[in-house]
């Protein structure tokens, strides 16, 4: 008899909000999809379902008793690269991929300790260094052919910037966004070729038995490591700590600071474009990060 999986209401609401018809179809298919992979991979549910905005994660045990998690998510341009990246990283700095179904994007992953997120580490400076050390592992891997490319993203952002600037009413904020775009334009022809995580915020870092901390949930792309720094500047934001965090991360990663700053501006520009195009005000934290980097003493 197949186990009935309860779909969290918050996941259904998020899919309705962000993916509309495709999200509704994904949610409707989830119970049967989960049941099918529990059978196919001989898994037994051992805990309460977890979820984010786009995925349902079931704690499971394999036939031999090994703990794992079954991740079911809507397949899109961001998530389709996740199993590719995890397979290439092969557990070095990231959760290990145990099995994968390409047509649906369903993954079987090693079980980490979901109760011990990096966001719970009291020492913020140590948390920043943890992220930097993980990125140092992940960035040693060159991105494979077919991965989303930062160069394409940068060109698209720069094409959209003029229309966005017209929608920013505050002159100082408009100047700051324009400065971010100008910096990206200077490095856009050399976008890099490393395999980036893109979303390594503190809740995407979990403790494990085989390593103190491991990354989860990448939205990978090929590009410059500087494009991966922004989450650690934003998480548990402290304006007076921005420069320390930026310098510490670039030191650990061995990055040229001018280039890393330009690609960090790229993340801030990306956020500004999304916010403006969605009719939302620019994020004050993003603007302050950009301002601190731009106006730092020589």
Automatic annotation (TrEMBL):
It holds the Pfam family APH_6_hur. InterPro entries: Kinase-like_dom_sf, NH2Glyco/OHUrea_AB-resist_kin. One of its GO terms (biological process) is secondary metabolic process. GO terms for molecular function: kinase activity; phosphotransferase activity, alcohol group as acceptor. It comes from the Bacteria. This is Streptomycin 6-kinase.
């Amino acid at each position: 008899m197949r186990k009935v999986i309860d779909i969290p209401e918050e996941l259904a609401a998020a899919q309705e909000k962000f993916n509309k018809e495709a999200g509704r179809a994904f949610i409707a298919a989830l119970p049967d999809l989960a049941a099918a992979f529990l059978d196919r991979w001989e898994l037994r549910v051992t805990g309460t379902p977890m979820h984010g905005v786009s995925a349902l994660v079931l704690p499971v045990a394999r036939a031999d008793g090994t703990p794992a998690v079954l991740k079911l998510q809507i397949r899109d341009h961001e998530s389709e690269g996740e199993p590719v990246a995890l397979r290439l990283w092969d557990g070095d700095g990231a959760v290990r991929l145990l099995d994968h179904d390409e047509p649906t994007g369903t993954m079987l992953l090693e079980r980490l300790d979901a109760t011990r997120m990096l966001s719970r580490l009291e020492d913020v400076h140590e948390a920043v260094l943890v992220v930097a050390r993980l990125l140092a592992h992940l960035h040693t891997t060159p991105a494979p052919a077919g991965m989303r490319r930062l160069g394409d993203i940068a060109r698209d952002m720069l094409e959209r910037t003029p229309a966005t600037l017209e929608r920013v009413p505050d002159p100082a904020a408009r100047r700051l966004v324009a400065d971010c775009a100008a910096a990206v334009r200077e490095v856009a022809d050399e976008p890099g070729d490393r395999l980036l995580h893109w979303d390594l915020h503190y809740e995407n870092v979990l403790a494990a038995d085989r390593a103190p901390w491991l990354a989860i949930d990448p939205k990978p792309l090929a590009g410059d490591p500087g494009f991966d720094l922004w989450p650690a500047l934003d998480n548990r934001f402290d304006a007076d700590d921005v420069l320390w965090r930026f310098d510490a991360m670039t030191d650990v990663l061995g990055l040229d600071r001018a280039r890393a700053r330009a690609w960090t501006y790229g993340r801030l520009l990306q956020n500004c474009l999304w916010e403006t195009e969605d009719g939302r005000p620019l994020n004050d934290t993003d603007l302050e990060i950009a301002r601190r980097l731009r106006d730092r003493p020589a």
